[in-house]
Design a protein that fits this description.
Layout lengths: L5 E2 L2 E2 L2 H8 L25 E7 L2 E2 L10 H18 L3 E11 L5 H18 L2 E9 L5 E11 L14 E5 L4 H10 L3 H4 L4 H12 L8 H7 L2 E4 L4 H12 L2 E5 L7 H9 L3 H5 L8 E5 L4 H10 L4 E8 L4 E5 L18
Length: about 350
Amino acid sequence: MTDDRHRNGTIQGEEAIIALLAPLAEGHPGALGLKDDCALLTPPPGTELVLKTDPIAEGVHFLAGDTPEDIAWKALAVNVSDIVAKGARPLGYLMALSFPRPPAHAWVSRFADGLRAAQQTFGCHLMGGDTDRRPGPLTISITMIGAVPTGRMIQRATAKPGDRLFVSGTIGDAALGLLLARDPAQAANWKLSPAETEHLLARYRRPAPRLALAPVLLDHAGAAMDLSDGLVKDLDRMLRASRTSGHLDAARVPLSEPARRIVAASPDWLGRLVTAGDDYEVLCAIPAAKAAAFASSATAAGIPVTEIGAVEEGPAALSVTGPDGRPLALPERMGWDHF
């Protein structure tokens, strides 16, 4: 690196940042090697494009001490998760990086390594973007582009009375991971093993989009959405958008083994976990006649899914019951809200 681009380990100039990121565009001809101001994309035959933008910012979506690799992975994963919930597959993405100060060469290099690992896992490439410097926290804004068979994108506003509600994976682990990242002493309080601690931290730092579930959703789902702001809040959004009512049986919500122990020791944690954000799982409404086939196909694809409730007739409203069959006590602030 020449001196004008790399003084004392700090990058000087946008071109130096782009040079570190340009290899991420290899493999997608429409990226033009990041040498143009725009990218070119032709949808695969018989498909439509699905677009999603979901930025992440330091202090809001990740912590200042998180590694560049983890930050990069999360920035891409949270966008892929939305694409997957639409039954689409990721094609590529645009990225805007906003730095509060000139970044260190080593930081950008490690960030690029994290993106490379995520790209290889999710099957997509960097297609273009921009960098700038502005006051405020480090922010990574990604616009993900996916492809779905024409006319078949799964919406969240199309749930019907009688549909069964399913969720992938487990709920609440990322929220526990965030608490551990902020206060490592919680691991001892919760009597977690090192492996359990690492699992919960990873669920917060490195979400795992359910890529294999996309084709299963296309075959079976009436409605679907990504879970980012909390199960209760996002389910309520689905019901309101669909103009239906619904019921969530919190006792059936899938929890990891450490989460189950935490709830067993302090039952109020159940309400906290079903309203916590950052799960990045898939919530879907499946017609009753397809429910068994959906569960079987998801299992065959390697994705665990659990039935947690049902869509019902009536004005948009959600009831949540606990293990005793009574309304579950929920935190006053249900789910994440930036405002």
